[in-house]
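Dear H.,

Thanks for agreeing to be a second pair of eyes. The structure we're designing against is below in token form, covering all 158 positions.
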């Protein structure tokens, strides 16, 4: 039984070196640690690995100029009726509302609904809430058709 020739061993070593170098290149050319902040927005919280003091020290330089409109994320500690949510956002423009449509004993997905209409903000939020409820009902019905069990619907709380 004969072993591999020196030439075959050299080719194997060269192939392994190419694979190793390719793996190093691929590992170093990945996406940045965090997504860049969109133009006109403020990134909430420090970047991965950044200390909080450094984040807070650099924050004033990243804030928009006075009078410039930028998106803001508002999260309430409890569900609000559309009229209460509209009152809390008074003086702002709501573009998207996030709803959790309640079903008994089931953790449901969040529903992101556009808030449309130029009239009453509370009415626009109410329409968005109804769209979210209809979409959740349709998803539950689709799950039943696919062999799942439909959770009982819990009445909306105001």
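And this is the sequence the design step returned. I haven't edited it by hand at all.
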């Amino acid at each position: 039984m004969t072993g591999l020739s020196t030439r075959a061993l050299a080719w194997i070593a060269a192939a392994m070196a190419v694979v190793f170098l390719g793996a190093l290149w691929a590992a170093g050319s990945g996406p940045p640690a965090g997504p860049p902040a969109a133009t006109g927005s403020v990134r909430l919280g420090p970047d991965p690995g950044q200390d909080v003091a450094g984040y807070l020290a650099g924050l004033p330089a990243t804030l928009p100029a006075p009078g410039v409109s930028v998106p803001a994320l508002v999260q309430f500690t409890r569900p609000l009726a559309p009229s209460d949510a509209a009152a809390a956002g008074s003086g702002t423009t709501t573009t998207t509302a996030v709803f959790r449509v309640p079903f008994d004993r089931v953790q449901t997905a969040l529903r992101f609904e556009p808030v449309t209409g130029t009239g009453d903000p509370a009415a626009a939020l109410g329409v968005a809430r109804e769209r979210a409820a209809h979409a959740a009902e349709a998803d539950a019905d689709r799950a039943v058709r696919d062999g799942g069990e439909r959770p009982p619907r819990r009445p909306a709380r105001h």
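Two observations from my side: The mean pLDDT is 79. Strands lie at 96-100, 110-114.

Warmly,
E.
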